[in-house]
Amino acid sequence: MIRPYTKDDRSELEDFLMRQHTFALLNGQSIQEFRDENVADFEEDGTVSLIDREDGQIVAIADLLKRHPVDGSLWLGLFVVDEVLHGTGLAQTLYEQLEEHFMRPYQTVFRLGVLPDNLRARRFWERNGYVYERDSVTNKGVRVHVLKKQLIRTE
């Protein structure tokens, strides 16, 4: 089950990030830059940083901004499943838990940015109900495709 990150998890988070070579490469970063940037993001206030463990080891992480200051929607800033577990269905299971427990209770509009060259991720998000909204540049100067998911409340 996904749970909130604590500073006690830092060493394991660093180890996890150092194994994500493909994602670091897609980001145009060295593995050390990728680790350092994401550890810093996880320890900043203002977001909900989450980890998932299997057999005592971190296998996935997520970082959420519950209310974006400009558009008011929830942003999924980072969702990384250990690359050795791609294709196992774990990402789908974890995303469903993440949405149910950490996203739906707070918002009805979700957004995220996908790197233009990350076609596998784009297909994953589209299967989960996200649609292309626009191109954008992150606060770190990275070009992304912004995808949006709008929930329909039936209350």
Key descriptive features of the protein:
155 residues, alpha+beta, 7-stranded mixed β-sheet, 5 helices, 7 strands
Q: Which strands sit side by side, in order, in the main sheet?
A: 1-2-3-4-5-7-6
Q: Taking all residues together, what is the mean pLDDT?
A: 92
General shape: globular
Number of strands: 7
- Gap between N and C termini, in Å? 27 Å
Q: How many strands, what sense, and barrel or not for the largest sheet? A: 7 strands, mixed
Oligomeric state of this protein: single chain
Content-based structural category: alpha+beta
Name the beta content range.
25-35%
Report the radius of gyration as a whole number of Å. 15 Å
Total of DSSP H or I helical runs spanning 4+ residues: 5
| Unreliable residue runs | none
Name the helix and strand elements from N-terminus to C-terminus, one letter apiece.
EHHHEEEHEHEE
Helix fraction by DSSP (H/I, runs of at least 4): 25-40%
List the helices and strands and how they pair.
Elements: E1 3-4, H1 10-18, H2 21-26, H3 31-42, E2 48-54, E3 57-65, E4 74-81, H4 90-103, E5 109-114, H5 119-127, E6 131-137, E7 143-150
Protein model, in words:
- The protein has 155 residues and is of the alpha+beta class.
- It has 5 helices and 7 strands.
- It has a 7-stranded mixed beta sheet, sandwiched between helices.
- Strand 3 (57-65) and strand 4 (74-81) form a beta hairpin.
- Helix 1 (10-18) packs antiparallel against helix 3 (31-42).
- The longest helix is centred in the middle third of the chain and has 14 residues, at 90-103.
- It is globular and about 40 Å long.
- The two termini are 27 Å apart.
- The model has no long low-confidence stretch (mean pLDDT 92).
